[in-house]
Please model this.
Amino acid sequence: MSVEIRINNQVADLSKGGQIDLELTNPNLTYETLFTQKATWPAVQMSPVNRRIFGFSDNLQVAGPDRFEVAMLYNGQVIQEGIGILGDTGQQYQLQMVEPLGEFFGIYQSMYLSEIAFGSIPMAAFSPLLTVNSEPAFCFPKTLNPDFFGNNGASIGYNGYVNDPGSSASPRCPAVFIKWLLQQIELKTGTQISGVLKDHPQLSQLILMSNRSMENATELVARNYLPNWTIGELLLQLRKCLNLSFNFQPARRKLSIGLTDTIFKQATQDNWSTKAVKGYKKREEPNRRLQLTFELDSKDALLKDRPASVADYVTPGTGAGIAKVPTRLCPLLVDQATGVQTMRQPGQTSQFAQGANDWQSRIAFWNGVTGGVGVALPSLGGIRLDWNGAGGLYDTFWKYTEAFRMGMFYAERSMLLNETDLASLDFSRKKHINGVDFVVARINVSLPVKKAAQCLLIRA
Model:
């Protein structure tokens, strides 16, 4: 039974009696950040092997690297892997291991999507759907927006519709397929992204609407029609809208995207009753009700008084406090007379000195091309992009999460976990402990395991 540390895939010499302190956190329980796991590793001796692995960073004449790919194994099983950050070097090397979610997308991590060169697509003639290698990339859904040119539309024969193939005065405002955008992010960052945003029958048809005209451009420059959000911000806004779960594997540069509701819906699979140490501390969660809300685009005049189709969802009742989950991904309204999605907002165009107008990306489902006209709506295949009612976002993606929250409390408990338990830990699996089902929120433990792990559990 032994712990092995690999640094840049090379086995390091370990000091005898060294201890690694782990803090493992469930990434499925927060909507405002992407949690990272942490570990403080024992000081590593300055043996000839280790000095070579660390690039002789202890030498005053060497500007060695300060980040390394690291992995900790127990009897060949990977307990944790990520990036080791080299601290002060004196007589020993000191590493702190992090799962670098803040660096997952490399040099593009802090750049806005609108700043990343995702390339351009030739567009000699207008088409309601643009594909790249047979993959839908951008589309031009017809949208009613009588305010696009402010009060100047009539002077150029504007009929009030954006992306109307029957009108030469209609501005062309592209919408990007989220699936295609994720594929471009993969290519740029060297990552692999899989899951529901790519393979779900409805979610793979989600688009981000822009309000910027192409004007007379003969090629579509992708970044011009993307929001001023980083990649991480895009993922978080999608998470707060669709209740997504993220499984990052930083060392492998992989991200798998699922649905958090399926975690709380599934039956309990693991029994940890025999691992529980007698005694626990219990505390209540005061904010157990949900408030799901869109952050409305204040520049859209149709949203001034928050219409019913974008109204909040709030868990019924008055007893518990409220946990608010806001998302900036708000759908457009639908014009009841025409059945076309609609807004009333000045667009971004060089005409009539509107080049400085900004806009907020809006979310919609691509519904295909009908009679040569692109169609996008806040509904597709029984799923609707509003919070309330059958098929709405709450009903489809949040109701099991709400049920979990309404019954939740915290229990701090010592658990007799071994290295194999830690290597096989899956935060998406519920644990049964002496008659009660729990979700593991956090584990603090030292390796090699010599005493009980300190666990924060949440009733499931």
